[in-house]
């Protein structure tokens, strides 16, 4: 509170005559007492043993991004924590605890937070198929399947599940540690609940039906499309071959390409809540692979 505001409150009390003073419960006295007790106590703050907090609010043109808080360890040295509207990151020794507050936030806010801590980490929170929400989908360029919790020199603790009864209304939490986190670029993909129609980013191409209830493999493309239309679903296509052990390869055909109706479906899997990807084995006159085409998911 400014000095002029305090003076106004004092002056307001001074205008009362002695015979009209109602005591400490008078409204003016109560207002002055509240103002005084609300003032920051500078000397007490300097004696605190906790770290200093630096708080900044983004400019009015970007208020939607929210406020940010940077935590300094109490003197020269690296920033120990950072938070914005999307994520809160805290460092303890060589471990970074990441609380994702809004899984639907602008992905750039996640990268900004890591950059504030001097880390080259790209965290992506992407829609996935049911059952894989709040799971680590990929680390770097491949799937996250470490046996000891370490992938590419980065140790990643299991993403904590939401407590019972909370649904998804709690922070998604993951811990990162390891020398590689501080010394190299790291990419982490974590799943979130997909909105209706959003493409799943954890599709797993292969032979056969996934889930088995699709019952499309072995049918002609025309038969498969008829079954999908009856369920108010659409189809996308992938060209490739896969073996039952999962080995194989596939590629995306040009946009607008459609296989002939008499060709057989070699595999099918859920692409979104209302669409399915159909795998078709390439023929001689089919378009070939083109690295410039976007991935199917």
TrEMBL record:
Keyword terms: Membrane, Transmembrane, Transmembrane helix
Listed transmembrane segments: 50-71
Annotated region described as Disordered, given as residue ranges: 242-262
Biased composition (Polar residues): 244-253
The protein, known as: PASTA domain-containing protein
């Amino acid at each position: 509170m400014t000095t002029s505001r305090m003076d106004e409150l004092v002056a307001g009390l001074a205008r009362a005559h002695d015979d009209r003073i109602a005591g400490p419960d008078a409204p003016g006295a109560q207002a002055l007492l509240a103002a005084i007790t609300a003032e920051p106590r500078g000397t007490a703050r300097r004696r605190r043993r906790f770290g200093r907090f630096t708080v900044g609010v983004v400019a009015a043109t970007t208020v939607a991004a929210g406020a940010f808080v940077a935590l300094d360890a109490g003197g020269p040295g690296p920033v120990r924590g950072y938070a914005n509207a999307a994520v809160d990151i805290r460092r303890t020794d060589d471990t970074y605890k990441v609380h994702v507050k809004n899984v639907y936030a602008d992905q750039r806010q996640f990268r900004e937070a890591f950059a504030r801590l001097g880390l080259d980490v790209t965290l992506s929170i992407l829609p996935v198929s049911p059952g894989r929400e709040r799971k680590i989908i990929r680390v770097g360029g491949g799937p996250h399947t470490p046996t000891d919790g370490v992938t590419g020199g980065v140790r990643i603790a299991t993403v904590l599940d939401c407590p019972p009864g909370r649904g998804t209304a709690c922070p998604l939490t993951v811990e990162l540690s390891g020398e590689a986190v501080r010394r190299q670029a790291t990419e982490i993909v974590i799943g979130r609940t997909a909105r209706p129609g959003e493409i799943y980013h954890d599709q797993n191409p292969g032979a056969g039906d996934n889930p088995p209830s699709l019952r499309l493999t072995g049918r002609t493309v025309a038969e498969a499309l008829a079954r999908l239309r009856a369920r108010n679903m659409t189809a996308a296509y992938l060209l490739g071959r896969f073996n039952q052990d999962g080995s194989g390869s596939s590629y995306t055909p040009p946009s607008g390409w459609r296989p002939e109706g008499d060709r057989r479906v070699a595999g099918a899997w859920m692409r979104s809540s209302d669409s399915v990807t159909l795998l078709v084995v390439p023929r001689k006159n089919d378009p070939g692979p083109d690295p410039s085409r976007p991935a199917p998911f």
